[in-house]
Amino acid sequence: MVINSFKSEQEFANNQFGFPKEFVIENYISAWETANLGTLFSNSIFICLTATFLTVLIGAVTSYFLSRFTFKLNKAVYTFFIFGMLIPIHATLVPMFILMRNIGLLNTPITLIFPYIAFHLPITIFILTSFMKAFPKDIEESAIMDGCGIFRIFWSIILPMSRPALATVLILNFIYNWNEFSFALVLINDPNLQTLPLGLASFAGQFTTNYGAQMAGLTMSLIPIIAFYLLLEKEIVKGMTAGAVKG
Predict the structure, then answer these.
(1) If DSSP codes are grouped into helix, strand and coil, which group holds residue 204?
(2) In this predicted structure, what is the pLDDT of residue 240?
(3) Residue 9 and residue 14: Cα distance in Å, rounded?
(4) Facing residues of 209 across strands?
(5) Long-range contacts made by residues 91-98, C-beta under 8 angstroms, separation at least 24?
(6) 122-142: buried (b, 16+ CB within 10 Å) or exposed (e) per residue?
(7) What top-level class would CATH report for the domain 4-12+23-241?
(8) Which of 60, 95, 96, 206 has the fewest CB atoms within 10 Å of its CB?
(9) Given this model, what pLDDT does residue 207 score?
(10) pLDDT reported for residue 239
(11) CA 34 to the chain's CA centroid
(12) Residue 90 has what DSSP assignment?
């Protein structure tokens, strides 16, 4: 994809797998100007970061209570959230469109943020609950004896210990929200509110497709994902290696 983003239309048609004879930087300029990538990037970043932050925040608090407290409906509530993983997203597109239209949220960022939170909250709770259940009770008992309350324990002890799992769900949510296309296609009609995947689809016309500019746009769209992963890479490695070596 990166190699083809530097090819002219003619060279791309003749040789899709070789290196370009001449690097065409104009593909990136064309992609930025034609698809209005500046607006698309800002829309995607706002929606993606907001949905990711709220999903992980709600998921972390919910997972804390489900994993560290015992109450009558504990298993029922956990099963209710996990059941959401079985619901196919595309089966809800029409009902979601009707709902958003009736409450007047079509063509607003919120119309994407709400579904993103709802459909990725189950996997977030599943991962965080499984991780938090492994913490020994002695840690909380010691904190309670020192005068810590429930939310102080959550904020100062449970969250820092859960950083590897939090990094994992942050990346999963970010990638899902960044690449999501179906909801954006159905719920957003205003070109000024479109997300990046939806805007990049404009390069594919009914009869012709500007593959060079499309590849350039896709290449640029990978930069935030790579940067976000590199930012959290250390925490993910800690989670993968935790418990791998004893002693």
Answers:
(1) strand
(2) 59
(3) 9
(4) 204
(5) 93/182, 93/183, 93/186, 96/183, 96/186, 96/187, 97/186, 97/187
(6) bbbbbbbbebbeeeeeeebee
(7) mainly alpha
(8) 206
(9) 44
(10) 61
(11) 26
(12) G
Query: Percent of the chain beyond pLDDT 90?
Result: 39
Q: In this structure, what is the dihedral angle of CA atoms 94, 97, 98, 104, given to the nearest 10 degrees?
A: 180
Are residues 218 and 39 in contact, defined by beta-carbon separation less than 8 angstroms? no
Pull the structure tokens for residue 52: 């990711």
Tell me: pLDDT of 164 over 50. yes
Q: How many residues does the chain have?
A: 247
- Listed range (23-32, 124-133, 203-212) with the worst mean pLDDT: 203-212
- Smallest CA-to-CA distance from 123 within 165, 78, 169 is with 169
Identity of the amino acid at 47:
I
Q: What is the dihedral of CA 109, 110, 111, 114, to 10 degrees?
A: 130
Q: Output the CA torsion sign for 142, 145, 146, 149.
A: positive
109 close to 50: Cβ distance less than 8 angstroms: yes
Q: Which of 217, 185, 229, 196 lies closest to 47, judged by CA?
A: 196
- Dist. CA 208–CA 244, nearest whole Å: 53
Secondary structure of residue 207 in the 3-state scheme = coil
Question: CA torsion, points 102, 104, 110, 114, in degrees to nearest 10?
Answer: -10
Task: Report the alpha-carbon distance of residue 183 to residue 166 in Å, rounded.
Answer: 25
Q: Regarding predicted confidence, which is higher, 242 or 93?
A: 93
Taking a C-beta distance cutoff of 8 angstroms, is the pair 201, 130 a contact? no
